[in-house]
Structure formats: structure tokens, C-alpha cells
Amino acid sequence: MNIQDIQAIELLLSTPKKIAIIPHRNPDGDAMGSTLALYHFLLKNNHFPTVISPNVFPDFLAWMPGSENVKIYENNKEVCTKILEEAELIFTLDFNALHRVGEMEQVLKKLTAPFIMIDHHQSPDDYSTYTYSDVAYGSTCEMVYNFIVFLGKKQDLDKTIATCIYTGILTDSGSFRFPKTTGTTHRIIADLIDLGVENSLIPTLLFDNSSYNRLQLLGRALQNMKVMEDHKTSYSSLTQEELNSFNYVKGDTEGIVNYGLSIKGIVFTAIFIENKDEGIIKISFRSQGNFDVNQFAREHFNGGGHINAAGGKSEVSMEETLHKFENLVQKLEI
Ligand code: 5GP
Ligand code: MN
What we know:
12 helices, 2 domains, binds manganese (II) ion, single chain, binds guanosine-5'-monophosphate, alpha/beta, Diaminopimelate Epimerase, Chain A, domain 1, six-stranded mixed sheet
């Protein structure tokens, strides 16, 4: 962030304001962590912040401090629209294109208050007044930490804010494994632990709260996995019937895609998950090394994301979608 922008934001934050903080639709640990960290920081600085999520967040994030105060746009459109219209400042975190908030986009487009974007995805859209966008970072949470430091407010960091930031860094870095995890990331983590973050408890809350149904669903996804060895690719799928038969609840498929990369020699994987309500197949892509899944998702499946983690969708049947994917992979030089 340049010094002019920081000064302008400091000025905006120098008097108490009504502030809306928005994560992307289907918020993950980084989206929830960054919005809640900022929420607690702004509360501490005498503002009136509200986190408005476009839709519900998964249960495995419901322990996060402040999550009980998050407003869900889809469940309460009138109240949320009013809060957005009355907000004097809008933060959008962990996304960089307004369509990522779904239907809420129509409301956001009409707002006249200044927007501040903090995000680490590629190719930001041009909707924000102040933009802190950098693909070098592994998480938006790491950037929120920096943002607080830029504002000269490092002393405001406390256990609550640190817990939220820690959660997003942990989840978006694959537990500190992904390539964008730097020495600086670890120094920030050290700082957060010194502030009291329960670094042994948080992974348990996030990852060890599975259900029997979820493990059975994981088993089905693993059984459905196909390997295209010559193309160093694997992929799996789950139909709506399969999801239903294991009493799928939101969040159950989180992380399953990563198993496809755990096979030796595989550098590209995908999972195709049918959503009959929305009439789409939602796709998650992951890669290791140079194969750019963001580009692949943008070009072929109306999506995007990062080089090694991206998503997209398909509006044709599962069979046709998988067929299209196989054909594309056969032409890839990986
Ligand atoms: P996931 O596979 O975990 O849903 O998403 C992986 C990454 O891709 C995340 O950073 C997410 O923000 C991005 N992503 C997922 N789905 C979409 C999509 O439909 N469009 C775009 N532009 N990005 C997506
Ligand atoms: Mn993120």
C-alpha cells in the first residue's frame, strides 16, 4: 500500500464510522479470519463494524470469536441491505471481483461509500477506492496483519484478533506448507503465538471435527478418483445423489480435493461436485509446481483463483463435464 492511501485511510478511520466488512460467498478460513480480525480491530478503535457474509459459513468456523455476530445476507436481505446502505466505509476481503459475493453484488454496485479491498488473488477488478492487492501473499489474513501495522496500530493486536489472523494463515497455507509461506509468515505466526493464540487447539477445532458421514463421503470421493498417469493428473467427483446419501452438510467436501495431489507423481487434480439447487457442477482445482490452475479455470470453466488453487463451474451434466475435462487434460503438456 502506498503512503498516500495509508494516510487517506488513517483519516477515514480517525472518527467513529459505520463500517461493513464483506468476505466472498462460501467464506473459507481466510475470508472469515480476515473479516473477523478486522471487525475486532475496528471495534477496538471505536467504530461500528458489521461483517456481512453473502451466505452461511461452514460449521467448522463457528467457534471463531465474533462469528456469532456475522450477518448472513441470504438469510436477512432487508436488514443487510440497510446496513450496507448506511455504511460509511466498505471493506471487501479475500476477493477482488464483485461477482464473488453472488446476489449481493447488485446492492454493492449501488453504494457510494468508499471501498477498501484487501486481497491476494490475481487480476483485481477496479471497484475499490483503496486497493491493497498482492499475489505474493499466501493469505488475506497475513495482509490484514500488515494493514494493522501500516496504520501504526500494532499495539492493538490482542489474542482475539491474533486468533482470527492465525486461522486464515493456517487454512490458506495448507498448514504452512504452500509455497507462499515465507520466513515473514512464520515471524508473524510467532508474534501471534506470543499474543496468546492457542496454536495447538485451533487445528483441532478446524480439522478434527469431522462426522462419520463426512468420512464416508470422503471414502466415496476417494473411490471415485481416476488417475491419468501419463498426464500426471487425478480427478474425482461427487454427484448430488452421493452427497445426499451421506447426509451432506455444507463444509463436508472442504479439503477433499487435496487428496488427489497426495499420489506420488500427480501434479494436477480436480474435484467435481454436483449442486442440483444451483444447477451447476462446482469444481475445485489444485496443482503442484508450475501448472497454472487459475489460467486453466479461467479458460475452460468460467472460474479463477491462484496458480496452485482455483475453482470454477460447469453448467452441463456431470458426465459431459468429466468428458470435457478428460479431453482437455489429454491435450495438456504437464
Ligand atoms: P476452492 O477450490 O477452495 O473453492 O477455491 C480455491 C481458490 O479458487 C480460492 O482462492 C477461491 O477464491 C478461488 N475460486 C473458487 N471458485 C472460484 C470461481 O468460481 N471463480 C473464481 N474467480 N475464483 C474461484
Ligand atoms: Mn484467501
